[in-house]
Amino acid sequence: MVELLWALTHGHRVVLRGEPPLASASVAAESAAVAEARTRPIDFSLLYFGSDSEATSDDRYRLLLDGAKFADRNGFTAVWTPERHFHRFGGLYPNPSVMAAAVAAITERVQVRAGSVVLPLHDPLRVAEEWSVVDNLSAGRAGISLASGWHANDFALAPDNFEKRKQLMMDGLAEVRQLWSGEKVLRRNGVGADVEVGVFPRPVQPELPVWLTSAKHPETFRMAGEAGTGVLTHLLGHNLEELAEKIALYRESWREYGHGPGDGHVAVMVHTFVGQDLDEVRELVREPMSRYLETSFDLIASLGATTGSAEDFKALSPKELRELVDRAFDRFFATASLLGTPEVCADMVDRMKAAGVDEVACLIDFGVDEKAALEALPQLTTVREISEERRHAALADDEEPIAEQLREQEVTHLQCTPSLARALLADREARAELPRLSRLLVGGEALPTDLAGELADAVGGTVHNMYGPTEAAVWATTSRIRPGGGPVSIGRPLANVRAYVVDRDDRLCPAGVPGELLLGGDGVVRGYLNRTEVTAERFQPDPFGQKPGARVYRTGDLARWTAGGGLEFLGRLDDQVKLHGHRIELGEIETALGEHAGVRSAVAVIRGSGAEQRIVGYYVPESGQRATGAELRSFLATRLPAYMVPGAFHAIDAIPLTPNKKVDRRALPDLSDARPESTTEYAPPTNATERLVTDVWREVLGVDRVGVDDSFFELGGNSLLVVVARARLLEQRDNGLSLVDMFRYPSARALAEALDRKPAEGADEAVGAGVARGTARRAAPRRPGRAGV
To answer: pLDDT value at position 85?
Structure first.
């Protein structure tokens, strides 16, 4: 942010662009619908439906009340409580208005909702009256989802209503709305006279927020759209694909009957427990979730493990029933829940967004120890934060292409990484805007000599190579790049920065002698928060400074002074690298890869240069358990950020070692041109367009052969290489191929077919925005003056 402060205080208007994760195979494998859906906001709420047998007798409602307080403090949207009678399953919640009144009394912001009120069991007058009280207690935060009911025993309260329950629900909805608006309804009093009665106290909200609860039947979704209510559903009776179809039916019905604004609201209940380790979460929730499933035979049936009635399940032996529950649990854990790490759960939220879901109602009381359930709630906020970060990144993708933004914002100063700069050169429209720049600042990773010369020739103003770690106020040295090529240096220290090159004994190195680069000056920070040992190692007293208490930061970078007084960057002293602006510890990747059961040992390296740099993983397979590249990539996607997942994996017989038994990365075989391990069998191109695509991919990705069924991203592609590949395809076939097309058709065959079709009008170029640095925010309306990106 320091460089932004400088720009703003010097009269510049700043345009910031977002940076989504580089497109690893796990990201690229998402459908276009998931990628597009990430731009949609989604609400997070807590929902309760626990079994009374799981509650402690001395404090049955601790999880409800403490969870509600947490939700209220941490920005959750709502707290939902159900209605269930005469059964341990859900037995803690026989009256949602009573539960809602308790929640309303201890919260200030979170909405208080019934999920659900079984309307055929009650007089609508009583429902409107009770929830008007809740609305007053909560200062206008009440809402209800109405259900027709499905458990016959519940109708002991109103046995004559069971057969006509769905019609009674819809009739009752109309009457509840009528009463809420202040109208009166006709009733017979105690002496047999017809009287008009209304609701007191008057509700706070002019309209009562209403949903209809649906287990899985499409007709209920259609009815909700017709009535202009929301929908509350779950993932126990249908999968996400089936749910998406029903949500589409709901939206269609909503629009057909002229409701608005908006297109309705769909909330989905999901069983939720979030932790740091996927395997630990699985084992922690297995028994309580299995007990939860056993208490409701219809849940097991709806999960697709088998079919049959409750009596069929009761006839099973304990062993058979347990096998059935185990199968149901495995499917449920993987496809119908928020059970896992924050990243895994955020992926599930993305898929729910793609299905059209507006709110995740997180069921947390399914039998996990209440202390553990409450302690896990902060991890659920992390899921929400990840989802929101992805949304902002996707919104940045939806901005106009960077070339258009450079032109429209009249940008004069641009700051980016060398990798992005190379991608801009590869894009014809972006390159055409570079002569307009007064300044181009590149930094965040090493600047290759060839790229430096090309940028200096392309930019109308000056190009500056910037160097500096965050620990030393971002930029510490700078060097102007001259046209015509020549050696690239990181230049001289900026004002108030001191730079030293020292040997192993911390003695100053003369010009031309490599050593570690130390940075001192007013911009050096005091250390790392709560990391005493690392602070002591990296931040040390300045042995050459004049100020008492001055400190230096050990960068870990290898550098040397040139004869002209500048600094030359030579690489890293340790295993830390920078890739596309991200600081990466290769050892962290190796540790995560080594945790796979099919891997005995592993090494990660960086191959390529500039935008074509990528991480390559080498591994020695465990005897008899060799994993495929796709399996390893999927495994790492749950443990590492997307930009740290290797783009290619190669199995080798042994890890090469130095004489002192350290890993010798330089001795690893250079398999850059080798076809990465994949589950896809090689299929050669069959026509001219397929040959064009595979030839371009081979050149850009640096692999020896590309099949038509190969995925660009599984072969090591990323967002930056997408730009390069598209530019080279357009050189051969200028037909409006968009960057979105590159993501939408990740296989060579699919992309070739798209190239052969007539291009759609208004092809979306927005994905190109995803390669820029910064925060997903748009600038203020254009006004005269200079602008920087």
So the answer is: 85
